[in-house]
Amino acid sequence: MIDVTFLHAILKRIALGFAAAWAVLTAVFAAFTLSQDWMEQTIEGTMRFGGAGEAEIEVAIDSYLQAHDLDRSLWAQYVDWMGNMLTLDWGESLFVESEMLTGETAPNLYESGEPVFPMVMEATARTAAYVLPAIALAVTAGLLVGLYVAINPGSRLGNASLGSAYLLFALPNFWVGGILVSLAAGGVIADSPLLFDHALPILLTATTLLGGYVSYARAHSLEYAAAEFVKLVEAKGASNVRVARHILRNSAIPFVSMLFTEALALLVLAVFVIETLFGIPGFGMLLFEAVHLRDLPVVLGCILVIIAVGIAGNVVQDLAYGSLDPRVDTGRR
């Protein structure tokens, strides 16, 4: 039987998510449409450099605005954009996709590109191909190291593992990746697609998250490692694995809270670095190029994906709370 209170909490999350989506999309739309269009400036500057007259420049700019449906009133544009975003009818990119992702040729300012929805979904799937394994790797390693250090304080292995996790977190992943890319370009190491398209993005993204997971797992595990119920379990001769399970069960809720909030915040930044460094045509690269070219349909679509991931993370978080501790009242959160 479905818990009505829990269902109400989930629906409340979704409603708040829609409100957040409207507010963020409105802010992005306003930022783009009310600011100076640098693509329009590019047309004017290029034509003036080539010796074009005022009439030719005006015709070119009018053609650009009409081709991209930017010559209507702001209100008409806003209503259409918001309706299309929320119904997943995101229209077409203002520029050709291949030009956005590779930068090999100058974008055609008068030609619409690919449909935005499949473009954004494809880029999101490419990013998820290395982000999800990285999160799984970071969570697993973080829990193991944090629990081991809490259960075995002062051990050499625990201290070495803790120090290694913090060192990997402190090392700038763009610097490590840049060195490896340079070595591959110089022929020092093999330029393997498996290494640079999959293995390294997973490892470097995991190290971005690992330090935080280790810290939280260790801190909350230490809180329960000295609890009376844990001492009772140890007194009964339970193995370290069984003791760790009891500690993890009780420290998991604050860890889950950090898992979604910190992961989303760090990954939004990490994907730009990783994908730019390794030339991965994923979500970060697509959003970066769309902002650069003022491709508003793609920018709004990418923003909507970020909001959707945030809403999904909150729902999964509530489900995890109920599973880990039925005493938690998600309806009041």
Please explain how this structure is put together.
The chain is built from 13 helices and no strands. By secondary structure, it is mainly alpha-helical. It has a domain at 120-332: MetI-like fold (Orthogonal Bundle), CATH 1.10.3720.10.
What are its keywords?
13 helices, MetI-like fold, 0% strand, mainly alpha, 333 residues
Q: Given the helix and strand composition, which structural class is it?
A: mainly alpha
The portion of residues assigned to helices is: over 70%
Mean pLDDT: 76
- CATH fold topology of the domain at 120-332: MetI-like fold
Number of helices: 13
Radius of gyration: 25 Å
| Shape designation | flat
Described by strand count, sense and barrel closure, the largest sheet is: none
Which CATH architecture of the domain at 120-332 is right? Orthogonal Bundle
Give the SSE order as H and E letters.
HHHHHHHHHHHHH
Query: In CATH, what is the homologous superfamily of the domain at 120-332?
Result: MetI-like
Level-1 CATH class name of the domain at 120-332: Mainly Alpha
> Per DSSP, what share of the residues sits in E-state strands of 2 or more residues?
under 5%
- Unreliable parts: 97-111
Question: How many beta-strand runs?
Answer: 0
N- to C-terminal separation?
22 Å
